[in-house]
Amino acid sequence: MTEISNSPVKILVIDDDRVIQLVLKQTLQAQGYEVILATNGLQGVEQAYKYQPALIISDWQMEEMDGLEVCRKIKSEPSLSTTFFILLTSRKAVEDRVEGLDTGADDFLSKPIEVNELKARVRAGLRLYQMNQELKRLAQDLQIQKQLLETELNEAADYVKSILPAPISGKVTINSQFLPSHQLGGDCFDYYWLDEDNLVIYLLDVSGHGLAAALPSISIHNLLRSHSLPKASLYNPSEVLQDLNQVFQMDQHNSQYFTIWYGVFNLSSYQLTYSSAGHPPALLLSPSNDSGLEVKQLIIRGLPIGAFTQAQYHNAVCDIPSGSKLYVFSDGVYEVEQSDGNMWNFNSFIDLLTVCNQEFYTDISQVLETIKKVTGSQIFNDDCSLLEIEFKPE
What we know:
Elements: E1 10-14, H1 18-30, E2 34-38, H2 41-51, E3 55-59, H3 67-76, E4 84-89, H4 94-103, E5 107-110, H5 115-163, E6 172-179, E7 187-193, E8 198-206, H6 210-225, H7 237-247, E9 258-266, E10 271-277, E11 282-287, E12 293-298, E13 316-319, E14 325-329, H8 346-358, H9 364-375, E15 384-391
Parallel strand pairs: 1-2, 1-3, 3-4, 4-5
Antiparallel strand pairs: 6-15, 7-8, 8-9, 9-10, 10-13, 11-12, 11-14, 14-15
Helix pairs in contact: 2-3, 8-9
């Protein structure tokens, strides 16, 4: 095949011997190739830049710029790096061939020229050139697809962030931090007043990462926001988890399950009713009589949503002392690989929260920055979500 595209294949011949030029030109033109001639190395490089040939045949021994230098310049130019380069030489020594290959030459053609060998080496070189061009086009297409996919993922990530609630203030102040380990993650949370007296707070963590985890979390968020559960009252945490477990069985949702902590705070009674499905316990930090802090883990057992159809969920009730802070989070906050390779842990996270609130604490973002400093890790291995709910003194 003598054509790679609709136009004839361009071959550049660089040789200061007029006779060899004519032999190569006539032979190659008879094969249907477009032949460009150069009488020295400098002119050859200029012609290569100008015409972008598929294949170059260059004499090794030339004045001013020899074939090796021509090859170096050609191969260092990105637009010509895949051009097939044949060195024309009478040298037979192995070390000479090695030097040529190390310079970037792809093949050799011996003098005196044997016409059938010339044709065969050109055909073989053009096959390799065509394959490289196809690979180059494929790489460019893949890069374009990658960029399009990244754009779509960024748009999806922006959407996920847009549905997360803004901070709220008043008698109860809530701030949050959300750091997906990838562009998209399986963490999602929400908080809002069901009425003037009842505040709902939940945080869920879908198994896995990326789009496969983000889509179920968005679906659950929309289901709860729209009050579309089949039976449950959003005021009753255990009923909410029971309904979610019936709707999101993992055998019907790509083998995915999720954990969730769900609570409802009543402003009149200053009580928190909560339930959990395999999620880390929320932490309640309250002022103690000795001017310190009392840390209480709000633990209640429950299987992850989707794991078992017959799973049962129950409520627990906790009095909220005035001036307390409640932290709800995903396990990515404390399952952090430290710089020494060991894993940080839940108890260390509790200690850090305590110290932060006793000493230098400023805002919730400072907690995550402190975790990075303490662990020596600048990234979180898993999706990371953290809610801080502050109950103002009455």
